Amino acid sequence: MLTSLHVRQFAVVEQAEVDLGAGLTVVSGETGAGKSLLVDALLLLTGERADSGMVRAGSDRAELSAEFDLAALPEARAWLAQEELDDGEACQLRRVIRAEGSSRAWINGRPASAGQLAELATLLVEIHGQHEHQALLSRTHQLALLDAYASHEALAAQVRELAVQWRELGARIRRLSGGEDREQRLELLRHELEELEQWALPPAELAELEASHKRLANAGRLAEGAAGVAELLDGDSEFALRRALGRAHAELGKLAALDETLNPALELLDNAAIQLGEAADTLGRYAQDVDLDPARFAEVDTHLARLHELGRRHRLPVAELHDKLTALRDELAELEGAGEALEKLATQRERARTDYDKAAAMLGKSRRKAADKLGKEVSALMAELGMAGGVLQVELEAAAGDEPDPQGRERCELLVSANPGQPPRALRKVASGGELARISLAIEVATLGKDSVGTMVFDEVDSGIGGAVAEVVGQKLRALGGQRQVLCVTHLPQVAAQGHAHLHVSKHSDDGHTRTQIQALNAEGRRDELARMLGGVEITRETRAHAKQMLERAQA
């Protein structure tokens, strides 16, 4: 759910912050006041292309941000976690558009691309308006909408998985039965395996080899350094630590004879003398035993050099070469036993095809049943929304080709006849902007609760209607608001009265500057705004009474 929207230096808005709640929120205002700026801001936050004309005149950049509550949106939370952009059950989208034309975006404070914004937005918000119906015009989207309406997601997923499995098995069969290419691959595999088997090492052995190389390369320095430290600890010099410790022990022994409380300190010096002697002996032995073996160093150095060479050739870190060896062994074994493997793969592919055909047939049956039902529901709603005699048909046709298709055996096309007596034609060819907006609303109402998107935005879906039809549109939007968060930009009082909340957009000019303000209206403010929408310039007592009556009837 969208909880807040903040815009700064955007078009004619100097700064505005809007808090939003559940249900239907309506947005109204005088023509030209900038009602659709909220929709424009959301479009930009969902990855829409930006340009410098959106920056307020005289400003260097426009800033937009939106906060979403993801408590009821598990798919959005999963997407954010997958992209490592998650931040609990909250999500912030932010975008900055600069006057020179560049823009930057963030998701939960982390840089994001416009593509990522768009991908996430499909899980957060749907925007419907006279110019924002590209998704509804897409045949792929229409098929997905039908599948969501039919609630057979599990069956559609099964069809998808079986088609992918069938294709992957085909790719493996082609690779195993590759003829001349197969022989060349076998020869290359044997050569690469021979090298890797000679040089590649498991992680523990590789770590030991690298440690040995480091030790051998620095053998002289290690021997000399250890001997020097042993001399400092217990050498012939009068400054050796053991001699100094002996002198300190003698002095403290005299003092302890005078005060027994010093005996613990004397014992500590005894222990220190023992440990210092052990350290000196250990370092002395180490200096004598350091392996000064040039031949062994050359052998280890050669081994590491070959490993790094193989790593560059295979484009892998040295530590992953042993895993590559295992993978190549498996591939070689598979290729050498191709005959038996091909038989197994062919059997598996045939089974996958049989399972696919069965699942696709069930999916097709479910789609046909849902298509008829959805067409009737949307057609009935179109009549209520001022398109009397209008008809929507969901046409299913066979997909091209005979191979298993992840989308199933059908393709979908929405056909519409907006007026009685006209034959239905493809929605993408015949619907006007206003008709498309109302058809979209009818589909949303018909498929209420079938998708997981939490916020729906309607930009003047009431364009070109009025009277009783406008009231029906408002009622449908309010019903939609009972299941989803809905934001609707409107110029009709019949629609505005149905809102659970009301935002008013106004434009003010002073000192040669134009500013747009967005204000949440209380009960009295809503009555006055509805009266303005009803009565125009002159607002009478009767107009206010009518507005109050409309609000009371809508809230009843």
Task: Report what the structure shows.
- Helices cover 56% and strands 18% of the residues.
- It has helices at residues 37-45, 74-82, 114-124, 134-137, 139-150, 153-176, 180-199, 203-217, 219-234, 241-258, 263-289, 294-314, 321-336, 338-384, 427-430, 433-446, 467-481, 493-496, 523-535, 541-555; strands at 2-10, 13-19, 24-29, 61-69, 90-98, 103-107, 110-112, 125-129, 391-398, 410-417, 425-426, 455-459, 485-489, 501-510, 513-520.
- Strands 2-1-4-5-6-7 form a six-stranded antiparallel β-sheet, with helices on one face. A six-stranded mixed β-sheet has the order 8-12-13-3-14-15, with helices on both faces. It has a three-stranded antiparallel β-sheet with strand order 9-10-11.
- Strand 1 and strand 2 form a beta hairpin.
- Helix 10 packs antiparallel against helix 11.
- The mean pLDDT is 87.
What is the overall silhouette?
flat
Return the average pLDDT rounded to an integer: 87
CA distance, first residue to last residue: 25 Å
Q: By helix and strand content, what is the structural category?
A: alpha/beta
**Low-pLDDT regions:** none
Q: How many alpha or pi helices?
A: 20
**How does the major sheet shape up?**
6 strands, antiparallel
Gyration radius (Cα, Å) is: 38 Å
- Trace the largest sheet across and list its strands: 2-1-4-5-6-7
Write down how many β-strands occur, each being a DSSP E stretch of 2 or more residues: 15
Percentage beta strand? 15-25%
Helix content: 55-70%
InterPro entries: DNA_recomb/repair_RecN (IPR004604), P-loop_NTPase (IPR027417), RecF/RecN/SMC_N (IPR003395)
Organism: Rhodanobacter humi
Function: May be involved in recombinational repair of damaged DNA.
Protein name: DNA repair protein RecN
